[in-house]
Amino acid sequence: MSQKKFHVAVVGATGAVGQQMIETLQKRSFPIGEISLLSSSRSAGKEIEFNGEKVIVQEARPESFEGVDIALFSAGGSISKKLAPEAVKRGAIVVDNTSAFRMDENVPLVVPEVNESDLHGHNGIIANPNCSTIQMVAALEPIREAFGLKKVVVSTYQAVSGAGAAAIEELHTQTEAILNNEAPKAEILPVKGAEKHYQIAFNAIPQIDVFTENGFTYEEMKMINETKKIMHMPELKVSATCVRLPIAVGHSESVYIEIDQEGVTAEQIQKLLSNAPGIVLQDNPSEQIYPMPADCVGKNDVFVGRIRKDLDEDKGFHMWVVSDNLLKGAAWNSVQIAESLIRLGIVK
Amino acid sequence: MSQKKFHVAVVGATGAVGQQMIETLQKRSFPIGEISLLSSSRSAGKEIEFNGEKVIVQEARPESFEGVDIALFSAGGSISKKLAPEAVKRGAIVVDNTSAFRMDENVPLVVPEVNESDLHGHNGIIANPNCSTIQMVAALEPIREAFGLKKVVVSTYQAVSGAGAAAIEELHTQTEAILNNEAPKAEILPVKGAEKHYQIAFNAIPQIDVFTENGFTYEEMKMINETKKIMHMPELKVSATCVRLPIAVGHSESVYIEIDQEGVTAEQIQKLLSNAPGIVLQDNPSEQIYPMPADCVGKNDVFVGRIRKDLDEDKGFHMWVVSDNLLKGAAWNSVQIAESLIRLGIVK
Predict the structure, then answer these.
(1) B137 and B245 inside one domain
(2) Which CATH number do you get for residue A15?
(3) Residue A150 shares a structural domain with residue A121
(4) Semialdehyde dehydrogenase NAD-binding domain: which residues (chains A, B) (predicted)?
(5) What is the dihedral of CA A230, A280, A241, B309, to 10 degrees?
(6) Catalytic: which of B122, B131, B242, B296?
(7) pLDDT digits (tens, 9 = 90+) for A240-291
(8) B136 to chain A nearest CA, in Å?
(9) Are A95 and A218 found together in one domain?
């Protein structure tokens, strides 16, 4: 890491992901000379402690980015669309955690373990992929590299924190109501702006984000399209079913894959993943060792277990992939991109 | 239905499934002349109301089955192994809800909507399939019949009630503890007799039943083997990943299938399932209509939605299948088998 210190801005500093970004920057001892914590006008004025000093949250405006080197955005797509170009105009590099620019062909979509070198092609903005995509491609890339990859069928088990801090609050309030034999109120999930809201406590909602015309949700299409872009595999067959569950933090994924090479064993894939960057193998059925969301909270890694060969398809394998959706799925991957930008000399 | 009335025994009458069997027999106005409610010695002596009269639960013994026409067993595999043959010896037909006899080639394994005629081949015992298998094959059979079926990849989202009433209690106790910032106690899930127990509240446990040597759990192998047996398709490619979730009642399944026929549309499958026995189609994304476990509780049907064609495989389709695991997954399917036995004249 360079000795130089940088002026970093966090946009959406009071949100669920923004708070994790601020914590991660401190934990990583990120080389910060100056920090700007930015938010909507509604949250401006709040005080947040950063490296032992109180910082007052300011309303994010175009001029907030004067002198900023790196701006981490996580305040919703419309804010990114409006302010990211303003930050770039003022010389900042933007790492954007919304879906605003992810599929823009001029914007690299990066998971450092997978496609760090795509950062060189940036035009001021770098997109952080969707949380459920990041943990999956981190687990798939070592397999693709060693054995090729043809097909992915994923079913997700996603935590409510992916829908923000208000969704965590809704899960808790509904859970308390049901335990007290009261009717739970649903006002946020599955999608805040949608017409209908459903109980998430003790339930499973097979809708994350709104539906597209082909019957898949946007969340599912994000997983499909982003996986192809990050892995540089437009021809990869990917399908996804995304489900919201009564879990506060930690996304899990049941992933079925078909690889290119014949005769590969589950043990080979286990060995591969036990040495892969950013991956922790937790896979010992006889000791009941496998990843679970309750164990992954607060950790940066992607945890993989339940790796087994399909009983019919020689090229088919199943696995269970778990990660903290606020960290590797969002805040940590964004900070990790910022670290890569410095290490690669892209931000100087 | 015959005018004759039958002597019915329920073994495991005080358990989560036994209670639903007793309720279902009453709701269906099952032609009962005499009811015997049987249990372990531990639960014997309890009083249960049946059709307005109080019935005292008796300890299940071989002689309990004298004069019994139909015995519904749901008291664990070891009880079934010991007492089902005793019931048969005394002239009863046994409908067994445990895994004790399911893969016995002399025992029909029946979901009435799929393979009712297998009942004719019984030798005194009929097995009720595993809860997660029943709802899936009910949804798959109409598709197989119309378009053929080659491959099934299922990921389950299973409720704790599949592990009995004590597991529901554990979910509630743990949930209360966590909401009160206390450490949750885990003593039952994932498997009561296993060495390690894990928190289920606000978590996902990718283990149901114990592990087999191939890395799949018994629950997963049940889904694989039972599906092939019920559908009479030993060549069908089936794989399963079974996951326990913090939901009291209602199993959900993300099912990916590949059919035989080319050029089939999602609309064709929707139309097929909207007319299929035991199936309720809930599939209208633009109105946010899809099945959810919280909505299926107390209903006998299997609910199917999110039907969509794979974006890469012409023969590939995805769907979301939900049912009350204590009813269609257990009690209702058992009572339904008993009704079939009478209608087909097998029990006279």
Answers:
(1) yes
(2) 3.40.50.720
(3) no
(4) 7-122
(5) 60
(6) B131
(7) 999 999 999 999 999 999 999 999 999 999 999 999 999 999 999 999 999 9
(8) 16
(9) no
